[in-house]
Amino acid sequence: MKIFIAILFLISLCISDEIKAIKYDGLIRMSNLIANEVSGLKVGDKLDSKKINQAIIAFYKQDYFNDVYASFDNGVLTFSFVEKPGISNIEIKGFGNEQETEEITKQINIKKGDTYDIYKEKHAKEVIINALEEKGLYGSVVEVDTAKIEDSISLTFNVNKGENIIIRKSYYEGSTLDKSDIEAFSANRERHSWLGWLPWWPSGELKLKELEYDNLRIQDVYMQKGYLDANVSTPLLNANFSNYDATLLYKINEGERYKVSQIIIKKNDDIENLFKEEDIKNLLKIEIGEFFNVQTLRQDVESIKSYIMDKGYAFVVVSPDLNKNVENREVAITYNINIGKKVHINDIIITGNTTSSDRIIRREMIIAPGDIYNITNIRKSENALRRSGFFDKVNISEIRIDETSMNLLVEVVEGRTGEIMAGIGYGSYDKLMINGSIRERNLFGTGVGVQLQVNWSKYNQLYNIGLSNPRILDSEYSGSINVFRSYFDNYDYIENSTGFNIGVGRNLTDELSINLTYGLAKSKLYDYKDVLYSGLYPRNGILKSTLTPGIYFDNTDDYYFPKNGAILQATSEFAGLGGNAKYIKLYGKAGFYYHLKNLVDFDLILRYKAQIGAIFDIGYIPFTETFYMGGIGTVRGFRTYSISPRNDKNLRVGGNYMFTNSVEISYGIIEAINMRVAMFFDFGMLGVRNFNDSDLSRMSWGFALEWVSPIGPLVFVFPIAIKPKSYDDVSRFEFTMGTRF
After folding, report:
1. Taking the domain 86-160, which CATH number applies?
2. Which of 18, 147, 585, 729 is positioned for an S-S bond with 639, CB 3.0–4.6 A?
3. pTM higher than 0.70 for the full model?
4. 611 with 589: CB under 8 angstroms?
């Protein structure tokens, strides 16, 4: 703070003078009215050096000024100001991608229009360096360029990123466990060979903020192995900043390993007549005679709580006690259970639904106001809302009212259910593809779905209009109608089809539904390689009238990217209700999902998908209704529908039996924009008399980029066919849009 001593001395000599006027010199950002309020002085006051000092300090606290001083002459008190320059622009270069840069810009706590000072600049540099260290980059340098533009300053933070410190060796003195077991849950682990660049492989990169918790994580590993007395020291890190290599050392005293000797269920009086002790013990995974495992203990506590909460006791408390017998190396486990009082749901409060009406959400809720509390039904309701595909985020939280009642708060973030698409794509078979569609799965927030679709390519054209309602009048019944016209060039022939189908369904549970669909379609072939239609295909085409019952099960936890659960579907298509196509086609499809983050500390989803089909002749099977393989949905790496049995004219006629399956592992690379990368292996086979009566089994592997983009879900596939036959049509690139993953 700069204060002129001479002026203050003069003021002190004139202490009895009266202030006749107050002036402000150099004031730009602050009005005179506000300045009067800040100073606390007014005309008519006696001149007082103490009050003037207080006014100057008050002005400094506004953070607008580099210098403030006062002068007094002929009754006029003048405050002179030197204002700090304003910040007209802020730019951070070299920190990361656009999203990361935007986030760190918020964290540095400087924005356009703020006043500039060196302390703010210094703080911003510290924030950037700390953020880089959290990412494992050490020795980073941030240089600031300041450019003066009139009365303001433009700031540019130039970031020179440091290096990752790599833990080359980790030592666990006193341990008898395998290093891989010890490091299973540690944030800081020894780098394993050159594969450290893989996202699920130990990279060895130092995570300094996590280091102080790693000894507790290691101790937990010992508790899972039964070492109840294990003691793990704080880590000793030795880093070499010349090459950014490091070693990590822990000293471990394992102690004895304990087995479970007894399990005791201790209940309060309220629970005595509600649940039998054996009912509780049957839930437990921990067993007498086995080594103690703290993770199993935690799971058992949650199992007991869920079991009792499903009976309406929302505020149950389960507290385990361990009674060690050191001499015998045994431990007795006591589960203390206090159930509290039975709870009812008072109300369900819905928020965040800017488009969807409340009833669209309430109809998916398995629990309602007035019901007894049930944690399983709450979790199922949450998953049902996610599976609807209407919302990006769903969270149901509990608001306690008193000991016997609570509200449920359903918070949703509306997803993008409408798609207006016009695009150009490329496929290995279809070549150039042009598509346009209007799709809305939640029309005006009513849950009704509509679709207008036009797809055009050299070999495949589709015109489709559809309407569906998954809950007619908010009931358990669904309905749909679809009208289409298509053109399909399938290597050996051209097929034109026109038709419609209409379906009804019913939800049996929140996860299981049945449906019945009637379809009518007229198809005709052209350019069929000069082969007479008689016998193989009627000259006047095919009239197909079908009735298809089906059953559908879905207990997954998300619409586009399921992490856990299964999707199962089975249909039986009966053709012959009029028309000249007469057959029975059985088809089943399954998808199983498991989030491996439950086992490893990475966002990995394991998927297994399979489909099986068989068609039986009860009069006439058009070869266009048989099974073909190749392309997305069957065996990637082979052109769409290119794998097929052939007749004596070497023409594809399809198989009567089909089985395909796929194993995929998907890794989340950019969570904020729903982008993942997947690795897959496909295997499938076709047969005429049975599932493998000819040389028609194929395999492939490859990678896929999965993205819920602004124009809808997209999958870009880069497949590699495994040992294709010389006559196979292989594919190196495929893509699809608008499907679940």
Report:
1. 3.10.20.310
2. 729
3. no
4. yes
